[in-house]
Specification:
The chain contains three helices and five strands. By secondary structure, it is α/β, with parallel strands linked by helices. It starts with a strand and ends in a 14-residue tail after the last strand.
Length: about 110
């Protein structure tokens, strides 16, 4: 299974990346490349806020699953739809408490 994590090197996503690789998932991480990715992951380097740069970095890649760990606004989700519609079987949007209340009153 080919899976793309948008982000993948944060506090929670690093642990999930490690687990995915251990389960035999072919994992790609799309991020700016500032952090060292989990061993066994394939790095795709682009600034996800630059849609043209991401489109170029992805080229013709297709994935079974895309997980977006860093979408925070409706514009971010609209960008995801433009980039991945027709090239992914399942899209997972990971939200956080800050999507519901800013600032969060309780973590």
């Amino acid at each position: 299974m080919r899976v793309l994590f948008i982000g993948g090197t944060g506090f929670i996503s690093t642990t999930v990346s490690r687990l995915a690789v251990a389960k035999g998932i072919e994992l790609f991480l799309l991020n700016r490349g500032h952090q060292t990715p989990q061993s066994g992951c394939q790095q795709i380097t682009a600034d996800f806020h630059n849609e043209a740069e991401v489109r170029k970095a992805l080229q013709d890649e297709a994935f079974d699953v895309v997980v977006d760990w860093i979408a925070y606004t409706p514009a971010d989700v609209a960008r995801d739809l433009r980039l991945f519609q027709g090239r992914v079987k399942q899209f997972v949007f990971i939200s956080s408490a800050s999507a519901y209340q800013k600032p969060p009153s309780h973590y």
